[in-house]
Amino acid sequence: MKFRMIAVLALFAVSVQAQDIATSFKATEVVPGITMIEGADGFAGGNMALLAGEDYVALVDDGLAPLAPTLKAFVDEQAGRPVNFLVNTHVHGDHVGGNAHFAESGTVVFAHENIRTRLLAKPDDAGGEGGLPVVTFADGVSFHLNGLEARAFHLPLAHTDGDAAIWFPDVNVLHTGDVFFHGLFPFIDLDNGGTVSGYIAAQRQLIDKVDADTQIIPGHGPLATRADLERDNAMLVDARARVKALLDSGQSADEIVEANPLADYHDNYNWGFITTERMTRTLVADLGGE
Predict the structure, then answer these.
(1) CA distance 289 to 174
(2) What is the CATH number of the domain that holds 92?
(3) Tens-place pLDDT, residues 65-81
(4) Rounded to 10 degrees, what is the CA torsion of 41, 25, 162, 55?
(5) Which residues form the domain of 82?
(6) Predicted confidence (pLDDT) at residue 9 exceeds the cutoff of 80
(7) What pLDDT score was predicted for residue 20?
(8) In-domain check, residue 6
(9) Do the Cβ atoms of 97 and 64 come closer than 8 Å?
């Protein structure tokens, strides 16, 4: 398990290096008061959401650690003042890397309790010990900011064991964290408590929560709709069924990869980190194959 996780992280590092790391950020208004923040000229980590108003400023996720000073300056300018509250959607360094830098200015970091537990063992992912979440929740927590409600709620055993999505019911906006890779094969982190069945169930829970008009900020990829989420969920359900059929027939992991059961999805979903082969091997491993 440990060796596999090291290999996965090494592959992620190569994938990131193959892209240009962002040097600046851009903001896209989702609805008045909520913007999506992402790298303007390269990879900056997962998609972030900024909630800014007369009373408070809140941020969902904070990208890669090396970009934290640039991100903070950009967010402070966008909001007109520093961030009061920061919510982490999960434990990975491309979503929590700026924690310590924001905390130095008084930002209070919230996260699911499993995120803090995992970061205690590896605080550098959050920029150091100063980036550990100081408020944790089990099932969820609600914020009441600038006349809007923001509900952070736990999605168990999905992308990891500490995932949270953030729902803004007053304005029909949802931030999914990495429980949604829009138009990409998803990274399901088996070594950090993720499961394919949990990922599918979490997506179904989100689909049931939203409607056709909901604007969805995915963990990675462009702004999305319920139809987009349904399409990607259906892909994963079918991909798992295809792999399971071959596994049940007695084929090994290498034989299944050779058979290429996800070929129909390659052109639309394959990408640098989670290739078609890696998605196939994740499904095999999750189903108990070797």
Answers:
(1) 35
(2) 3.60.15.10
(3) 999 999 999 999 999 99
(4) -170
(5) 21-225
(6) no
(7) 84
(8) no
(9) yes
Report whether 153 contacts 140 (CB < 8 A).
Answer: yes
* Percent of the chain with pLDDT strictly greater than 90: 92
Look at the block and give the residue holding tokens 């402070």: 76
Tally of domains in the chain:
1
Which residues on neighbouring strands pair with residue 110, listed in sequence order?
87, 135
Do the domain assignments include residue 231? no
Q: What is the pLDDT of residues 161-220, one digit of tens each?
A: 999 999 999 999 999 999 999 999 999 999 999 999 999 999 999 999 999 999 999 999
> Which single residue is written with the structure tokens 């990208």?
63
Helices (H), the chain: 2-18, 68-79, 93-96, 99-103, 113-121, 196-209, 226-248, 253-259, 263-269, 276-286
Q: Are 100 and 127 in contact (CB under 8 A)?
A: yes
